[in-house]
Design goal:
The complex is a heterodimer of chains A (about 325) and B (about 325). Chain A has about 325 residues and is α/β, with parallel strands linked by helices. Chain A is about 30% helix and about 25% strand. Chain A contains eleven helices and twelve strands. Chain A has an eight-stranded mixed beta sheet, with helices on both faces. In chain A, helix 3 packs across helix 4 and helix 4 crosses helix 5. The two termini of chain A are about 30 Å apart. Chain B is α/β, with parallel strands linked by helices and about 325 residues long. Chain B has one domain: P-loop containing nucleotide triphosphate hydrolases (Rossmann fold). In chain B, the strands form two sheets. Chain B has an eight-stranded mixed beta sheet with strand order 6-7-8-3-9-10-12-11, with helices on both faces. Chain B has a four-stranded antiparallel beta sheet with strand order 2-1-4-5. The longest helix of chain B has 16 residues. The chains are: A alpha/beta (about 325), B alpha/beta (about 325). Chains A and B meet through helix 6, helix 7, helix 8 and helix 9 of A and helix 9, helix 10 and helix 12 of B.
Chain lengths: ~325, ~325
């Protein structure tokens, strides 16, 4: 059985002045099953947002894309905008960081959702208004508040309104980019609880893009850790935390403060490599505390490991050789 | 030397902002309304101590910090720096004190002048305060400051501009510029929230080392996990008041105020197995124009009783003691 959404060897690059190119996404392969919650985690510039924009066909014209994006086994990338448009919002919905930008400031929230329903031919008139009421209630906004304008909403309420909008066309996948980043912790908790219940109630698959490991640890089943445009490790969140198979995963958790954790968080020395020149060896090697000669010469590929996991690190070969 | 060695003492600090009435409101002579941004805040900070002021946006933590630095005028209360009352010190009297109290901001990209090199940025406070003596002596002070923030060797960084630095390096430059005058108090307003996770710990460890060197650090943050790991003491603010304060380990391990308990319960943990049951408060904090009577937290409090509508609780010793206090009539 194929996954609901599959990314196969997705590359995204931007042409720069002087004939150079910025290779932002360098071969991402990823699968999301129906109803599954996957966290796409990494630090700024790692390519996580570019990856999902590529999937949704929302990259700027200066971007070039290659690879395959399969929705229920059918490639939606091959035919460009024409092949993606029928699936955007209806199958793949997105809630962006900073929900203010997703809402039209001069239209009431209800009117915007009615419009979305009408444009997609899903409902109109009284039926559309009734559906908007249901959607608002599903995201925890009292029906009558829908008659207000986005600027009359708090940050948390705007994020809820953006979710109501995303759910309007009954998508099977909800993509959220840093859904809780600018919010206070109590509002963040409210939104995470809402995401949790929406996934359960609507049977949604969730692709959560964030830099916040604890949010992923609490909300997602699986996670993919990105570094320098590629996935360096993926697997169940529990395994990533308790038995990381890539040093970056381990060090990123170690850099994250925990309320009751032992020990002081430690930062990772150095900075990610530039992506506007070819990478040699392992992109994490200059910052890695376990690097050895092979890491300088040979770029490790993402290789499957036991338990539905995968990692791009030569150390896993060393371990395997010792065992055998 | 101050009477009790406390670097900073804040007593019953009050800061009000008028709410703009607009033309119609003014003509109609609607009553003036006040935002009670800080509404009776008391705490102290010792040399070599890192106190984290935590709370959600709008709780008054940043206004508190700005008022201590006299960037905002208080409406009441008392601020003492090194034993000296500076609550209403005129600008002339504040100027020599300003070099002893410095601030760093959240966004090191905005707080650094993009036209200045690292050398220019770190040297600027010396020029403004006419400190540091000759050009050569100033150059030496700038180099020292860069070494203290671990931008080494300094020669590698002196000629660079902000856009040539990473976020973590930029924040280190901002810290270098704030310590070059040898301050005794550093206010750090969300110093790492704009930085990538992998470099945050390094900047916090740097603040920790400066603290060990005797600097008093007042860190404003919304991140309880960071406060728990790096602060000596934590003060939790809600709607213009400190509702609980105490040693970081005691406050996080044995919270006494229902607001602190709720806040701690919703902090996501990094271990997927630590899936705690969050105690989610509904709604958002009411605005500081209409502070509820009695305990200001009672409308959202899960354990409020009838008395909470009437009694405005003061900070009282709670928990294990040792400077642990909570403003709740139900706290032990």
């Amino acid at each position: 059985m194929s996954a609901l959404l599959e990314l196969e060897d997705l590359h995204v690059w931007f042409d720069l002045e002087g004939g150079r190119e910025l290779h932002a996404v360098q071969g991402v392969t990823l699968a999301l099953d129906a109803g599954q919650r996957l966290g796409l985690v990494g630090e700024s510039g790692c390519g996580k947002t570019t990856t999902v924009l590529g999937v949704l066909g929302l990259l700027p014209p200066s971007a070039s894309v290659s690879g395959r994006v399969l929705l229920n086994g059918r490639d939606i990338l091959a035919g460009g905008e024409d092949s993606i448009r029928p699936h955007r919002w209806t199958d793949l919905a997105i809630v962006f960081q900073g929900a203010m930008n997703a809402l039209n400031p001069v239209q009431t929230v209800s009117a915007q959702i009615v419009e979305a329903l009408e444009v997609h031919g899903l409902a109109s008139g009284r039926a559309a208004r009734a559906r908007v009421g249901e959607l608002l209630e599903a995201v925890g906004i009292p029906r009558d508040r829908g008659e207000r304008f986005p600027h009359e909403f708090s940050g948390g309420m705007r994020q809820r309104a953006a979710m109501a909008m995303a759910l309007a066309c009954n998508p099977s996948v909800l993509v959220t980019d840093e859904p809780t980043t600018a919010l206070d912790v109590m509002v963040q908790a409210q939104i995470l609880e809402l995401l949790d219940s929406l996934c359960r109630d609507f049977g949604l698959a969730l692709l959560l893009v964030t830099h916040d490991l604890p949010v992923v640890a609490q909300l997602c089943d699986r996670a993919a850790v990105m570094y320098a445009g590629e996935i360096v490790e993926r697997g169940p969140v529990d395994a990533l935390y308790h038995d990381p198979r890539h040093p970056y995963t381990r060090l990123l958790f170690a850099a994250t403060p925990d309320l009751h954790g032992n020990g002081t968080p430690v930062s990772i020395p150095g900075a990610p490599p530039r992506l506007d020149r070819p990478l040699e060896g392992c992109p994490f090697q200059p910052r890695c505390d376990r690097a050895f000669a092979r890491c300088v010469d040979e770029r490790p590929l993402l290789r499957s490991l036991e338990g539905g996991r995968a990692a791009a690190c030569h150390l896993n070969d060393v371990v395997a050789e010792k065992v055998h | 030397m101050s009477s009790n060695g406390r670097l900073l003492e804040v007593e019953d600090l009050v800061v009000h902002y008028p709410v703009p009435r607009g033309l119609v409101g003014t003509v109609a002579r609607r009553p003036r309304q006040l935002v009670r941004a800080v509404d009776g805040v008391s705490f102290s900070l010792a040399r070599g101590e890192l106190l984290a002021l935590v709370g959600e946006s709008g709780c008054g933590k940043t206004t508190t910090a700005q008022t201590i630095l006299r960037l905002v005028e208080p409406a009441g209360g008392r601020i003492a720096f090194d034993g000296r009352d500076i609550t209403s010190a005129p600008n002339r009297a504040m100027r020599p004190l300003r070099r002893r109290m410095q601030i760093i901001y959240q966004d090191p990209y905005e707080s650094l002048d993009p036209r200045l090199t690292v050398r220019g940025t770190v040297e600027e406070p010396l020029l403004i305060h006419r400190e540091g003596g000759s050009k050569q002596e100033r150059a030496e002070l700038v180099r020292d400051a860069l070494v203290r923030v671990e931008l080494t060797p300094p020669e590698l960084f002196l000629g660079r501009y902000p856009h040539e630095l990473s976020g973590g390096q930029r924040q280190r430059v901002a810290i270098a510029a704030s310590i070059v005058l040898g301050p005794e108090l550093l206010v750090a307003d969300e110093p790492v929230s704009m930085l990538d996770v992998s470099v945050r710990a390094g900047v916090l460890a740097l603040l920790d080392r400066l603290r060990e060197g005797g600097l008093g650090v007042l860190m404003i943050t919304h991140d309880l996990s960071t406060a728990a790991r790096f602060a000596d003491r934590i003060a939790v603010m809600y709607l213009g008041r400190i509702v609980e304060q105490g040693p970081a380990a005691a406050l996080v391990g044995d919270p006494q105020h229902p607001y602190t308990k709720a806040l701690l319960s919703v902090v996501p943990r990094r271990d997927p197995r630590d899936r705690t049951r969050p105690q989610i408060l509904t709604g958002e904090a009411p605005d500081a124009v209409r502070i509820p009577p009695g305990c200001r937290f009672h409308p959202r409090c899960p354990i409020a009783i009838a008395e909470c509508r009437e009694i405005d609780p003061a900070l009282e010793p709670a928990g294990s003691g040792q400077g642990h206090e909570a403003a709740c009539i139900l706290a032990g």
